[in-house]
Specification:
single chain; 260 residues; alpha/beta; L-arginine/glycine Amidinotransferase, Chain A; three-stranded mixed beta sheet; 15 strands; 22% strand; binds citrulline
């Protein structure tokens, strides 16, 4: 049986645009370099393709500086997709760019119509449930609407909380396999992963938590050797991608693709 939470045949990505320099960020730690980001993005897409998955690469969207972070626009499940309603006003229009792409792929594309907000970065799909972290971008009404939509496909949604000051729930965690989560200690301390095996990021390597399990690989940001070693020792086939430029905009490995 296919494990819908990490075995995928497809992904959708979007090329970074020159407007990336205007992307949202919590703190200014430098201007992202487009050339470097394009190289990193191409490396990321190549790894997805190496697994045999078909990757649809969408063209850059100049009008939306954060549009490379496609994950926030939709939740993709085997039964259908749900278009998100981003809490960041500058990102709302990205959803309209993604909806037709997913309508071409899926028979069933549902929409969060509001008044609540929800972004894909706050959603962690595991084999048994969908965890949604309330954050500055995702509110209780958004979580409740998602629950009411995916109920018809038999999913249970569990509301959890993204730590204060952390952009998205998945900024601090990733799924590694059906039972195992990679998490920062600060997020795990909230108790949200009870019943799962948890591997912690190493101290000082919290930014390694935003990884993805994509078929045989765990794709993680480069530069976190202790966490990488932990994952290798646990038997995962780890691939590292430079993330220096996306990190300037609080982005990481999960943000760069929709996977299904
Ligand atoms: C933002 O603030 O919305 C973007 N600069 C970063 C989005 C990262 N997305 C994600 O973690 N899923």
């Amino acid at each position: 049986m296919t494990e819908h939470s990490y075995e995928f045949t497809r992904a959708v990505t979007r090329k970074p645009s020159a407007s990336i320099v205007d992307g949202l960020r919590a703190a200014d730690i430098g201007t992202p370099d487009l050339d470097q980001m394009l190289k990193d993005h191409a490396h990321y897409v190549a790894i997805l393709r190496e697994t045999g998955a078909k990757v649809v690469e969408l063209p850059a969207l100049e009008a939306y500086p954060d549009a490379v972070f496609v994950e926030d626009t939709a939740l993709c499940l085997p039964e259908g997709a749900v278009m998100m309603r981003p809490g960041a006003p500058s990102r709302a229009g990205e959803v309209d760019g993604m909806a037709p792409v997913l309508r071409d792929i899926y028979d069933d594309v549902l929409e969060i119509s509001g008044p609540g907000f929800i972004e894909g970065g706050d959603i962690l799909t595991t084999s048994k449930e969908i965890l949604v972290g309330r954050s500055a971008r995702t509110d209780a009404a958004g979580v409740a609407e998602l629950q009411s939509l995916v109920d018809q496909w038999g999913y249970s949604v569990r509301e959890v909380f993204t730590p204060e000051g952390v952009l998205h729930f998945k900024t601090d965690c990733s799924l590694l396999d059906a039972e195992t989560i990679l998490s920062t200690k600060r997020l795990d301390a909230s108790g949200c992963f009870e019943g799962y095996n948890v591997i912690h990021t190493s101290d000082g390597e919290e930014a390694a938590a935003n990884a993805i399990r994509f078929n045989q690989f765990v794709i993680m940001p480069a530069g976190f050797p202790k966490t990488s070693e932990r994952l290798c020792a646990a038997g995962y086939d780890v691939r590292e991608v430079n993330n220096t430029e996306c990190a300037k905009l609080d982005g990481g490995m999960s943000c760069l693709s929709l996977r299904f």
